[in-house]
Amino acid sequence: MPAEKLPARYARSLANLKRAMRDVPIVLVFDNDDLRAPYRRVATCENGARTFLAKPMPDWLSRLL
User: How far, in Å, CA of 26 to CA of 53, rounded?
Assistant: First the structure.
């Protein structure tokens, strides 16, 4: 993918995640920013309600919420 398309795709992905957290029955959100601890679960939403939020929460997730 061309680098100039990344910002728009990132923004769309976060918007889709926000919608999914509201509308999808169960959503598990993972963060892979840290290569020493990849695929760390950072949030769970069930029927639109947040049932789990990791501490510390990644900045991108706290901005989304």
Answer: 14
